[in-house]
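pipeline/complex-builder :: batch 7 item 3
reading input block
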Amino acid sequence: MESTVQPNLPGQAFTARHSLKGDIVRWSLITIVLLFFFSFLIIPLVSIFFEAFRQGVRVYLSSIVEADALSAIRLTLFVTLIVVPINAVFGILFAWVITKYSFRGKNFLITLIDLPFSVSPVIGGLIFILLFGQHSSLGQWLISHNINIVFNVPGIVLATLFVTFPFISRELIPLMQSQGTVSEEASIMLGASAWQTFIHVTLPNIKWALFYGIILCNARSIGEFGAVSVVSGHIRGMTNTMPLQIENLYNEYQFVAAFAIASIMSLLAILTMVIKVILENFIKKQTL
Amino acid sequence: MSRIQHSKKKQSIPGFGLTMGLSTLYLSLLVLIPLSLVFIYSARLGWTAFWNDVTDPRVVASYKLSFLTAFSAALVNLVFGLLFAWVLSRYTFPLKRIVDGLVDLPFALPTAVAGITLTTLYSEKGWIGKWLPFDVSFTPIGITLALIFVGLPFVVRMVQPVLQNFEHEVEEASASLGATPFQTFRRVIFPQLLPAALSGFSLAFARSLGEYGSVVFIAGNMPFKTEIAPLMIMTKLEQFDYPAATAIAVVMLVISFALILLINLIQWWSRIRYASH
Amino acid sequence: MKKHSLLLLAALMIISVLSACGSSNASQGSGDNTKKSIKLLNVSYDPTRELYEHYNAAFAKYWKKKTNQNVTIQQSHGGSGKQARSVIDGLKADVVTLALSGDIDAIADSTDNLNKNWQKRLPDNSTPYTSTIVFLVRKGNPKHIKDWDDLTRKGVSIVTPNPKTSGGARWNYLAAWAYADKKYNNDQAKSKAFVKKLYSNVKVLDSGARGATTTFTERGVGDVLIAWENEAFLSIDELGKDKFDIVTPSLSILAEPPVAVVDKNAKSNGTTKVATEYLKYLYSDEAQNIIAKNYYRPRNQKILAKYSDQFPKLNLVTVEDHFGGWTKAQKTHFADGGTFDQIYSK
C-alpha cells in the first residue's frame, strides 16, 4: 500500500518492454508537450523578462527597490503567509471528511467547495464589500468603531482566502478517493485514534498531493488580481499588492517597472520549483 | 489494491462529528454567508426586473460567449493536461524539471500580467501574432487562448499525484498478460485517472467562466461579439447598479453550480461503475 | 515530529491572524490639526497620477510653511466609477478628484458623507482644471483625419474606451454627439445615426482610458485614438514624439473633472482643514502652472494664455449647457437602454 513512487522510475520498465513502438509514442508525446510548453509558457515568460530588462539592469533594479514596490512585495508575502496555512489545514479537513466518511449530500458538499472557482473574482471581492462595507449594518457598525475590514489588509486576506479556498482540498480529494479507506479502517481496528490514524497512515499517503495543493494555493494567492482589486482601495504603499502595483505602474506608462515586478513574481514561481526539486530529492534519499 | 468501499454501515472511522462540524463552519463563514448576499441583493430587484436584466440580448450574448470559450479552453486543457501529467510522471527527458516547475506559472502570474503579455504577443505586431494569418487578439480565439493559459495547471496538477501514486505493478501485470500499451491505458489506467481528470476539467472550466483580469485586455470588449459575462457585471457596477450586477452573478453562479454538480455526479457514477468491475 | 510541525503551523496561523487584525487598528488616521504630521487620502481616477505627484509635493511644501505641519498625501488611482464605488462602499477618502461630477454625485446620493451641493463650494463648478477631447493619429496623419466627419468614413478604424465602464470615455461619446448635434441642427435621430456610424468603426472598446491608449500606441491597433487632450500629450511624451500627432477637431466638449472634500470622512479623520485647503490651493498660481505643465487646461485665464501654443483654441460645449447636466446626460445616453445601448443593439 505504501506507495512513495519516485516520479522518474515507473514506466521505464514498461517502455523498455515495448522498445521501438514505445519509443515512438514516448518521444512524440514528449515533443507535443514541449511544443505546447514553449509556445504557451516559455515565450510569455521570456517576453516578461525581455520587457523588464529593456532599459538595462540599472533601471530594472531601481524599479524593484522603489519604496512602493517593496511595500507591495511585503504585503503580498504577508497575505500569502496567512492564507496558505489556513487553507492547508481546512483543505485537509475537507478532503478527510469527504473521503473517509459516507454521508448523504456528499456530491453537493464537493460542489459547494468548488463554488469559489466558479464565482467571478469580481464577485468574490464584491461579496466582502457587501458584507463589511457601508451597505450592511454590520459594516456600518464596524466602520463607526474604526475597524476597517475592506479597503484594508484584512479584506485582502479574506478575498484571497476565498479565491484559494478550494485548491488544497480539490487536490487531495481525487487521490484520497482512489486510495479508499482500507488502511484507515485497519489502523482504527488496531486501536489507533482518528488523529493518530491521520498522522501515521493518511498523511504519508497524501503528502505529494498536499504539496502540489500548497504550491497551487501559494501561487494563486500571490497572483490573485480580480478579487483583491475590488477590496483593496488601491492605496499606494499601503494596500497595493504586487499584482495591483503592476497594474498601477502599467497605467502610468512605466512598462519597465511593471514588468520588473512581474518578473519578480515569475521568479517566485521558479523558486517554488527549486524548493520542490530539493524536497523531491530529499524524500527520495530518505526512502532509499 | 485499493478500491472504494461503498459501505452502508455506520462510519468506521471516528471523528465524523467534529471534522464535519468544523468544515461546515469554515465553509459557511468564508463562502456561504458572503455568497448569500449576492442572492439577497439581486432579490431586491423583484422578479420582473430581475428577469429583464438577466435576459437582455446583450447579456445573453455574453453568457454564450463566456460558456463557449470557457468550455473550449477547458477541453484543450483536459487533453494537454493529461498529456503533460503523463509525460511528467512517466518519462525522463531533458528540461523535465523545468517543465514540471513552470506548469504552475499561470497561477503565480497575476491574471492582468498574463492578459497584457498575451495581448502583446498575439496582436498584429506581436512576436507570435505577426506570423499568424488570422487575428487572435480582440477575437473569441484570443479569449480562449487567455483562458487556456489561465486554466492549464488545473488538470496537470490534478492528475499528476494520482499517476505518481499509481502502483505500476498493475501496469506491468497488465503488460505481462499481453495487453498492448493502449489497452493497458484504456482498461487499467484511464478508469483510475477519470475522477481526477474530470475534476481538473470542471475546475478549469469554472475558473474560466469567471475570469476577468486576463480576458479584458485581449477581448476587445465589443458588444455582442467579444463581451464576456464578467464584463457585463462590471458594466452594471460602474452604473452603481448593485442589484443588476448581482443578478447576472446569480445566473452565472447557478448555471456553473449546476454544471459542476453534474460533473461531480458523473465522476461519482463512473467510480462506482468501474469499482464494481 | 510531525505532530510538532502541525502545532507550529497552527500557532503560526493564529499569530498571523492576530497581527492582521492588529494592522487594521493601527492604520487609523485619527488625529487633530495640532499634530506634527497628518495624512490625507486622495482618491482619484487614472490619468491624474502625474499631475498629483507634482501637486502633492508642492502642496506639502506650502502647508509646512504655513502651519509647520508635515502632510503626507496618499494616492489611490483607478477607473473613475470604480473609485467612486469604493468611496461609497467605505473607502475613507478625505478628498475625491474624479473624472466627472456624476461620479461624485453618486457618492452624495448614496451616502450621507457628502453634502449634495458640493459642486457649489469651490469656484468654476469645483473643477480647478479642464481638458477636452482630441484625436491621436499616427505620425503624418496617413488617413487624413481632420474632424469628426472623418471618423465615420469607411476604412478608418478607431480605438476608444467603453463609456459604460470608463467615466472618462463618456466625454468622448458626448463630444461626438455634440458635433453631430451642431451639424444636423439638433436633429436627435440624425445625431444618433452619426454616432452609430462612428462607433461602428471602433475596433476595440477597452474597459479603461489607459487601456485604450496602450492598445493604440503599443499594440498598433487602429488609425485614431479618441482621447483626452492631457492623455494624448502625455502618451506622446512617454511613448515617442516621432510616432504620433494630435489632431484638434473643430468642435469638442469641455471636460470638467471635479474635486470635493468628503465631509464625513475628513471629519472623522480630523483632516477637514487640510483637505479643504488642499483643494483650494489647486486654484493658486503655483498649482495652475503645475496643472498646465501636466497638460490639463488651467482655469486661470492668464496662465492659460501663457501656454497658448500648447492648448489651441477650439469651440467647446459644456455638458451643463448642451446636455442639461450630468444626471440627464447619464440617463439619456449611458443608462441601460440609453443611446449607447441603442446604437449597439441588433
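note: Chain A has 14 helices and no strands.
queue -> next item
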